[in-house]
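Summary for the steering committee. One of the milestones for this cycle was to obtain a three-dimensional model of the protein with (2R)-2,3-dihydroxypropanoic acid bound, which we needed before selecting residues for the alanine scan. The sequence and ligand used are listed below.
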Amino acid sequence: SLGRPTSSMKPSVFVTRPDVPDVGINLLKERCDVELWTKNIAPPRSELLKGVTGKSALFCNIADKIDKEVFDAAGPNLKVIATMSVGYEHIDLEEAKKRDIKVGYTPDVLTYAVAELTVAILLATSRRLFEAHREIFNGGWTSWSPSWMCGPSIKGKTVGIVGFGRIGQETARLLKGFGVRQFLYSGRKDHPEASDIGAFRLPIEELLPQCDFVICTLAMSPETKHYFNEKLFNLMKPSAIFVNTSRGGVVDQDALIKALETGQIRAAGLDVMTPEPIPPDHRLLSLPNCVVIPHIGSAGIESRNDMAEVTARNILTALENKPMPAELKL
Ligand code: DGY
């Protein structure tokens, strides 16, 4: 081993899933010792703690809770945590900052995929695709019927976007093609991009009563927890359709269930909920006017490849003390 670099001289990375797209893993393998968790589920706590021990970098995702215990288990070698997600509320940023550990995430590369899925679930909800599909199997499809399985079209309607960041804006751009009459958005500040899209900002209390579709793309934070509460659902039209593709935690789910059960709103389409995964016997899943899908917003093939690549590059650049493609300011 005279002067020859051995594998033990390479930085080491723990990757919390074996099915991370190859593009990311191959990049890491060029310069690091890579250890992959072996199962296609989130590693149990003990395995996460074991896996991260002594590593220089952690490649994780939103299902891995990265808190003080994980930082402690990793020890002083840990230089960077890179999450294959745009959301980062699963990482204790204070703790990372205290220890001078860099944190990377994957904004931008999933914006289109999540916006596309938002349009898909909006249509699946408004045109009742899953409900109609079930009718084929449960005997409900007896013949063509004039009023059967009808739902509102998007054309000519008012769409409100709550959380007008990258994903909210992209969703509006995609929906433009459907002939929306008016886009409204709410949020703390004016967005210059809104004028190209033709969107107006209104306080939430004025926006909700006007909207036929309410789309939530709010980032999760202590301030947005249970943002959509009973009071806000009560401001919506009885014909309103509510769509959430951001985080389940921004909705008071009991208030949503009540609004769906009482007809306070027409329907909801959710890619995110509480908890995830949702138990199959959960009340939310028994509501015919609620479409639920399992947090697949960013699951475009292209976006997942890009997310894996950005996450790997975040790790490699951080390990070399170079600017990361997407570093969170701590
Ligand atoms: C994210 O990136 O935060 C999504 O929720 C998962 O891709």
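Key point for the committee: The radius of gyration is 22 Å.
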